[in-house]
Amino acid sequence: LSLFLKSTMWSVLLSCIGLLVALYALCLWIIPAVVQYSGCLALLWHDVIVEKSLDTRLLKAVQDRAIRGNPKSVISVIDHYCRNQEWAMNVGDEKGFILDSVVSELNPQTVLELGTYCGYSAVRIGRLLHSGARLLTLEFNPDYAAVAREVISWVQLVEGASGDWIPRLREHFGIHTFDFIFLDHWKEGYLADIKLLEASPERSSGLSGICAQKSLIRQPVL
Ligand SMILES: C[S@@+](CC[C@H](N)C(=O)[O-])C[C@H]1O[C@@H](n2cnc3c(N)ncnc32)[C@H](O)[C@@H]1O
Q1: Domain 58-212 -> CATH class
Q2: b vs e for 210-219, b when ≥16 Cβ sit within 10 Å of the residue's Cβ?
Q3: Phi, psi of 211, deg, nearest 5
Q4: 29-49 b/e with 16+ CB inside 10 Å = b?
Q5: What are the C-alpha distances in Å from 181 to residues 12, 41, 75, 160?
Q6: Where are the domains of the chain?
Q7: Span from the CA of 61 to the centroid of ligand 1 (angstroms)
Q8: CA 4 / ligand 1 centre spacing (Å)
Q9: Over the stretch 17-39, which tens digit does the pLDDT of each residue have?
Q10: Mind listing the pLDDT tens digit for each residue in 172-187?
Q11: In what order do the strands lie in the sheet with 156-159?
């Protein structure tokens, strides 16, 4: 009987270990590899499961390690965290360099960003603007907006959906034109929001650039 009990215990233990290894492989490799073929599934996996409260962990890293009032340090803390600890949906360092060069080249006085998340790209853009320039960044997720408010204090953050705000920007903020617009919200909204911007009074005669993060618009810089 004792031999039977021992062998049963061993087989239960081995099954548990096997299950744990399978779960580990599923979460770390199999699901991430499968969901990358569907935008919706990838977002669901990252937003609901992987990135749960990642925004607050990013904020904590900034609070612990960045120097207040020093945008360069905020950017490098977020880059370091995302490279070494957890991936986040910031524009990141590589594409950030492209964004930097577009902003530096255009030297815009008024900028609209759609999709703030934790404020990384807003800080990135904001640090290159000249005094007197204005950057509006739009975010509809109140949790992200609260984190971004902490991360950026010199950028004007608007909490709400792009579709609601675009028609009211002129009336509310008194900005008549945007020199540069950075689209980095959900890609399903790009076309509708570009049309809305075209139809809005603040559509700029002097608009010099629209930069979109994802591949829906095939030419990244128009
Ligand atoms: C890729 S993230 C933005 C990353 C950010 N630009 C950065 O690089 O740090 C996209 C963000 O857009 C927000 N978003 C998506 N659709 C939106 C909409 N229609 N209006 C406002 N915010 C939106 C999401 O909540 C998410 O935080």
Answers
A1: alpha beta
A2: bbbbeeebee
A3: -120, 130
A4: eebeeebeeeeeebeebbeee
A5: 59, 28, 20, 17
A6: 2-50, 58-212
A7: 20
A8: 59
A9: 999 999 888 887 888 778 767 76
A10: 888 778 888 999 888 8
A11: 156-159, 134-139, 110-114, 180-183, 209-212
Q: Kindly give the residue spans of alpha helices, DSSP state H, lying in the chain.
A: 2-25, 31-35, 39-44, 54-65, 71-84, 92-106, 120-126, 142-151, 162-165, 169-173, 190-199
Please give the Cα distance from 130 to 7 (Å, whole number): 73
Confirm whether pTM is higher than 0.85.
Answer: no
Mutate to test the pocket of ligand 1, among 184, 195, 213 (most ligand atoms within 8 A of CB): 184
Task: Identify whether the C-beta of residue 180 lies closer than 8 Å to the C-beta of residue 103.
Answer: yes
What single letter denotes the amino acid at residue 58? L
Token pair for 43: 């977002």
